[in-house]
Amino acid sequence: MTGVLSSTPQLIASATASAPDYVLQGHNGDIFGARWNHPAGETQLRRNAEHVLVYHLSGNTDVERLQQGVVTGFRSRVGSVTFMPRDSESDWRLGGNTQVLHLYLPQTLLDTFAQDVLERDVCPEIEDFFAVPDTWLDGFFRMLASEAPPSAAHGNRLETLVLDQVQSLLVRHLVTRYARERVTDAERTQTRSGKTNQLRQSVLKKINALIHERLHEDICLKDLAEIACISKDHFLRAFRDTVGQTPYHYLLSQRLERARVLLREEQAMPVAEVARRCGFKNLSHFSATFRRMTGVSPKGYRG
């Protein structure tokens, strides 16, 4: 495992004497998530380097958390979410195999959000919570599964734009819902509405031009936000308010439109080359996405 986020999954792997089923990586190779199948037993976790958000996927619900010898959490539920702050220490007892999905959040990610949106240097501390039912977070984890390429479970890296989007959405929810220090009414208004609700048509034209010029490349949210001269968080909401889609879904729709043109007009071009020219990392991802969005395979569409 490489990258700044690798130390936390390594710590967990060492503590549990197991390895994750798979890891989720960004385009640069940094690990930001992992799926685990923890067996029954007892585990000590000491001073993880990043904040850890844990989503209970399935399996055993006989879960107990102790901190300094005191039970601070008991009986998890499938679909519930637990937050472990960085540097925290806890003991865990599992009554059976438990399947969970972890997301690893560096403090710099939270502080950047605070600087861009709350106009604070440091992000308010997030409350430690155990197995809470949270409809938004449940939907978020389901959305993450749909935003990620189908082959992500096999070690492929997520595009930067996907990762930027999901992290921005997640941090905003955690800060507004679970900050230990009260977020002021003015700051709550900032996180809900931002500094702008609509992008000017002239800005949209520039964004469109960049997307079409770099359709085959890895595009990050910062690239697009800089055109509008606003923060990544504000841009994400402004783009969605203006276009009706997230930036990644819009990018995906443009890639698929170019793929349709190439499949129709370049009959001799191999499907794998069509996939490459349209920004898909491999043929299997392209084929699965094309079928999901159009109802037919690329070869079937070509006829």
Explain how this protein is built.
Residues 205-303 form the HTH araC/xylS-type domain. The structure is a single chain. Helix content is 46%, strand content 19%. The chain has helices spanning 7-16, 107-118, 135-147, 160-178, 185-193, 201-213, 221-228, 232-243, 247-265, 271-277, 283-294, 298-302; strands spanning 22-25, 31-38, 41-46, 51-59, 63-67, 70-74, 81-84, 89-94, 98-105, 129-132. α3 packs antiparallel against α4 (160-178) and α7 crosses α8 (232-243). β1 and β2 (31-38) form a beta hairpin. It folds into two domains: 8-178, Jelly Rolls, CATH 2.60.120; 201-302, Orthogonal Bundle (Arc Repressor Mutant, subunit A), CATH 1.10.10.60. The strands form two sheets. The protein has a six-stranded antiparallel sheet, with helices on both faces. Strands 3-8-5-6 form a four-stranded antiparallel sheet. The chain has 303 residues and is of the alpha+beta class.
